[in-house]
Design brief:
CATH topology of the largest domain: TIM Barrel
Main location: cytoplasm
InterPro entries: GAF (IPR003018), GAF-like_dom_sf (IPR029016), PEP-util_enz_mobile_dom (IPR008279), PEP-utilizing_PTS_enzyme (IPR050499), PEP_util_C (IPR000121), PEP_util_CS (IPR023151), Phosphohistidine_dom_sf (IPR036637), PTS_EI-like (IPR006318)
Strand order of the largest sheet: 7-14-13-9-10-11-12-8
Shape: elongated
Radius of gyration: 31 Å
CATH class of the largest domain: Alpha Beta
Family: Belongs to the PEP-utilizing enzyme family.
Number of domains: 4
Catalytic activity: L-histidyl-[protein] + phosphoenolpyruvate = N(pros)-phospho-L-histidyl-[protein] + pyruvate
Number of strands: 22
GO molecular function: kinase activity; metal ion binding; phosphoenolpyruvate-protein phosphotransferase activity
Structural class: alpha/beta
Helix content: 40-55%
Distance between the termini: 70 Å
CATH superfamily of the largest domain: Phosphoenolpyruvate-binding domains
Length: 755
Amino acid sequence: MRDLSAGPRVLLKRLRELMAEPLEPQERLDRIVRQIASNMVAEVCSVYVLRSDGVLELYATEGLNKDAVHLAQLKMGQGLVGTIAASAQSLNLSDAQAHPAFRYLPETGEEIYHSFLGVPILRAGRSLGVLVVQNKAQRNYREDELEALETTAMVLAEMIATGELKKITRPGLELDLTRAVTIEGDSYGEGIGLGYVVLHEPRIVVTNLLNEDSEKEIRRLADALGSLRISIDDMLSRREVAMEGEHREVLETYRMFAHDQGWVRRMEEAIHNGLTAEAAVEKVQSDTKARMIRLTDPYLRERMHDFDDLANRLLRQLTGFSSRSASEGFPSDAIILARAMGAAELLDYPRSHIRGLVLEEGAVTSHVVIVARAMGIPVVGQAAGAVALAENGDPVIIDGDDGKVHVRPMADLQKAYEEKVKLRARRQEQFRALRDVEPLTKDGKRILLQMNAGLLVDLPQLAASGAEGIGLFRTELQFMISSTMPKAEEQENFYRSVLRQADGRPVTFRTLDIGGDKVVSYFRSQEEENPALGWRAIRLSLDRPGLLRTQLRALLKASAGAELKMMLPMVTEVSEIRAVRELMQKEVQHLSKFGHQLPKRLQFGVMLEVPALLWQLEELMEEVDFVSVGSNDLFQFSMAVDRGNARVADRFDVLGRSFLRILRDIVRAADKAGTPLTLCGEMAGKPLSAMALLGLGFRSISMSATSIGPIKAMLLALDVDRLSKLLDGALDDHRTHLPVRDILTGFAEDNNIPL
């Protein structure tokens, strides 16, 4: 065991006693700084607290001028104290005045002190203030003194977080922890949610750091690990998870990691070095997080997140903070905030109470986002600092449409969003009333409205939305939420379940579209400079024919006696279609040879996403049974715009003349060849752009289930022939500079078309 000083343990014990006494906040702070100074033999101990205006104010001191309390202040990043707060890192200086960041505050009388030790007061990585000790003599403080001060800072962080210091905050000012904050992120799932913060990782403060008996702590760890493993087994056996089969593979991975001996050995080693079981778990977890920050490999980052989740579960076991005790106070309108989380963790929460999900990390393709979107939960990702800026129970608004999170919103903003939510609710009622209304335009044009899907949990929305089928079923999602490659039988059962739940409605399966931003954890590929333009989708499948043939065979067997409608993603040349047809024919022959029943009808189509196909339209239309335009990628590649790059994503308009002319050419080529044409992409799900598509001649579009109602309301009021004439004129007139978007908006307003 390490030879640790008793100082931290004694100091912590005395501080706990102070926290328990019925004292006024200022008196409690004053006694805390006196106790720290006495314990550390320091001539000065001071506490600076961060205000909402970015100023660090002196709240208590022992040794400096008492009159400076609540008057002395430094801006964030200013002076030694401001530097510590801004960097969230300690400073240990033998001669503070020689440091380039030193700033002299004459009102404090600190010029006679040379040695300086300052630590940030942190809560979930967020600076709430700074704790400082000083001495006249020049010296560097020892490691155990730094440890004592850091431990004490954790206690002060909890004192600030409870709101106790509000009583001694000057009128008109507020602490940083309570101010209204708006966080800009990325929209991962549309919708608006109002509710209260539920931090995914409950802040379990480990104050019992040093152990008295290492063997006893090892036994505590072993018991907690046993309970953890049982809880994971229980999750796997739960009926609802088993029924949703897609998540089982993720949970199996959790079980494997819970038995990882390397993880257990590192925690046992920390205990033998003198830490308690919970402190050892926290230390190993912190080390893992530090490594995770430096990782770029998506596969490894996903695995690190699994370990992080397990560490949190283990801490709850050791401290008695169970999932059940957390859910007892679970609000009926919860917005979950997390740095990162797995799909399995989301399933721990009562689903009917979740109003939104905010993630600091992750991507739109991460497991939890895929599941959340399938559940219809608004999601904002890449919301930097969200967890540190919020507290459990804080009022919060998540705007999944704009990618914004409003923590502790001002009253007027809260009211505005409440009205927005009420309006959306009224509109949803109107849309539900249209569910069984035939989608006929005002001038009698029949429009086919279909929905996009990718998971079994999407399927109930097919009937609820009034969609007439699935125009795009993303088969890669099954691969992305699995921890191992789905076997042929698993794929077959999955596709059969999709067709059964579609209940006779047409389903268009897109073959595997992985690569680029669609990461499959177990499929390791080389890093590419431009992954969106690289080895992905049909290119990858043709280079791995075994992978494609397995999927084709599963689709054929699952569709036995029914219709199979499938399409290929990211086709660049017609020759690629022919190559897949050959593989398909081999699978048909193989199944026939062994007496398997085949689909009664096979429709073979293609996604038109790569601009090169625009110069092969005649050949393309002859080669396939149908074409589906992938507007997202087609726009991205046509405009040379990375839609994931905020600097250029909105630079060009999807309703600009150049792109609409491309779409019109595709419609004309399909009409000439008599080839069925549809469009699936974000354009189809927005009333104004969907209106433009109908004006161009599209009669079939596919979108998210939630968009079906708004699109149907729009088309019922639309005279397509009138719009087509207007739109053709706007696209053919090379003299006008009036944006097409403005022309379409004006048409909608003049004709009372709801947008």
